[in-house]
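Encode chain A's predicted structure.
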Amino acid sequence: MDPRGGNGCRDDDGGRIRRNSEDGARRRGLHGGPDRARLLTPGRYEPLPRKVPRECQWSGVHLSHGAENAGADEVIERAIGLLSSLVATAAPAHLSAAHYLARLPRVEQLGRLVDASRVTHAAEAENRIASPVDSIGAAGYASAKHAVAQLTSVSEFEAARRIRVGGAVSDGVSLSGAPTSPRYPEIAKAVVEGRTGIEAADILVRELDAVARRVDPVALHAAEQSLVELASGSQTAPPLRVELVRDQVKAFILAIDPDGARPAEVRARRQRKVNLGRETEDGLIPVSGLLTCEVGATLKRLLDAHSRRVAFPDIDADDAAHVPPDDRTPEQRRHDVLADVLSAAVRVKDAPELAGSSPAITVTVTAEALESENGVGYIDGQATPVSVDTIERLIDSRGLQKVTLNAAGRILSLGSAQRCFTASQRRAIVARDGGCVIPGCTTPAGWCEVHHVIPWRNGGTTHTDNGVLLCWGHHERIDSGPWRLSMPDGVPHVRGPGHPEWTPTAPARTRRPLPRTG
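Encoded structure for chain A:
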């Protein structure tokens, strides 16, 4: 390999690749040898051999146990110089398409060979951390992962992965001091030869480790052989992408594991979790966790189904043409669908109580702030203030209870809870609207909130003639978004994109005209 000369090749006018390996080898102290480059012409491509050509092998460094450290260090230093030269001079922009297609996988193999050395050196940290002789723990490192992360400037996640893969593909030492073979010899061979990357190797190691103690060793080794061939490719098939390797591993494990999928399900149930993080300065709450397969699939289907626009037969072509594009990102749409689901959940009659009351959130606001355009309130347990617009939306769906305090904070009177729309009123509005009244929105009625068209603080009445169904996303933006609502004669009308005039909303999708009799 000739790093300074772009693998010793250059493009002639006809796209032919010519190698000058002898001169390059003499300059760099490498073996000379026969010309191993293929002739590449536009439209014709023959892959380079997987075996490293002789002229690309190191010379003058014969390692033995007595000199292996000095020899290996010399190889590393020379390799760094050669690779630095390669990066600086072997720019791919000037290559023909055929040459580029030939070089790209070879450069990847080069990186994998470096990765092989990375993981074996990382795994050695596990042996050295608590060693009674020449321990790296004496240097102040608390763990092997900590040492690798600090010394290589990678994340602890990546350090742990390197240690895990390296431990599976490196030679070991028995309790008696005798050398032992790698735990997974086929994976080890593929990694050392640069045929399999660390990402794929890590998947194989983790998944095979999970079943190694309960499956037949012969079956485990056969699965390892087949999976390595799939991950690294063969003469008859190219290597699989990493995500496909993961699928194949699961299929093989199901075939050889006598317990089937049950152990994995048990492990998954133990790891299930949902975490709510610390509130940000903007009032956002980070969400993270791990959902079981069925819960995650249900949530995904739910979010996908209701965050994509759906056409209904009762919307004619003219109406469909006037439906404005949804300017929300997919992530924002999924958030709003989740908000609809949660809003519906707190209205369920049999919903569990929290401290003796509904799990619906509580907002505290003064009478003066509620009357002000710029007033704010506070959601119980949250530090970020919320605007009057948000408070009104919450009053629409959750009601209001008046508490009178004196200047010292003593409670003087407690009014009865006022639900802005009763269950009977909501059922009537659902029968009339059938779902969110904004054109093009398909959120079902059960997920919608009832909105005061004339705001409650502006004297709007809690009456069916002043209430319409809105999904969380449109309810949240109704005052600042493009849509406007009115209720002439108790019938919802909208005005907005594609509807410059006040237009009555479509009737409930469940409503059908009754047949005439007589």
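The longest strand covers residues 499-504.
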